[in-house]
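Hello, quick one for you while I still have it in my head. Could you read through the record and tell me how the tokens relate to the sequence? No rush at all, and the record is pasted right below.
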Amino acid sequence: MDLVNGFDLKFSLKLACLYTIAKLKFIHPILPQKLRDRLPTGWNFHMVLTAIKSGGTRIYNDYYSKFREPISYEPKVSVAPEFEFTEEDIKFFYKNGYLGPFDLISPEEAEKMRDHLVNSIVNIPSKMWKYEFQEDTGLASELFPDDENTNGLTEEYKQHILTQVNKTNRHLDDPKLLNLFQQPAIVERCAQLLGADIILWRSDCFEVPPQAKGTPWHQSSQWLLHNMRESVANPLDEEELFQVTGWIALTDANRKKGCMTLIPGTHQEIYPLKVNRRPNEANQMYRYDKGQIDFPIEEASTQLIEVKAGQFFLFSERVIHGAIPNQTDSSRWAVNCRVAKASTRLFTKEMFEKGHHITYHKLKNISLNHWKAVLLKGKDRFGYNPLLEQQHR
């Protein structure tokens, strides 16, 4: 089904006004909060022009940028021989957007970690977050007319979101999970791609239940999609590789059991979403995004990433990726860790002072008091992010 429906002239005129006001920063302090929440202050001109020219049927849900090739494909650091990448390995990563899989822990250790994940992490409420629910999602409600706003804050919806929150950044309150992400097999490989000074800033736990659908195609880079106004991840140079994700299988993930799939090479550019401005779908509660990515998926050559329990692979989340359905009678479990250059500023000053908003979950005033970056290797030469104190490294 083609989701693109209904050029909206009123939307285009309104967005043009909002973008103009967003550039007049000197007047922002006197503006009502409701208006400030609708200003696309973190957008570039290409994003605004695309949205306006399309009448709101093409919307970037992440910061638009193109990906720049490095001057050299030599590893950025020297590491132990068992973790070494060749120049050809790194060239493959830059061409395709992924590398691996690699061995990390034994299948038996993976099973123990999965049991720990289920029994001691995801089913126990996280103590890391304080937040409130919100009806008005600010700029997101202007951009996506089929937003979850239409569903209301039911108890069912709140429980669904609570489940998602409980799976995020649990390495900050679970030493076993943090230790998994600190393994040299992950850290030393990330350092060869990113450089000597790297931090862990986010982790997630993923379950694809038995006989469940997979995850729709999507891209991520700077996490503008949290509130659609300002990016969460702010590197020194957005066109440079500044972040790599390690995806760790705790059960086998294969073509029958919900493995990851991606479209090699699509990390070269961030693509907009095709948005339906005349929605007729009854329930949007469990949609991953607010539209389909504007890329000819049907014509593309996709790559299944089959990973055995205890293995991991590295990829740039800029690459268009998703997960296929789980056709088995048992859950597929995985965790990931997002590793960035230490020069990357995570969250903005306003997010720390006033609370973060994740509008696609209808959350506001999320306290970041307990959020910390974890220094995985090297030094923090910038001081942009609060660091987790660690007694043993």
User: Anything to note?
Assistant: The first strand starts at residue 58 and ends at 59.
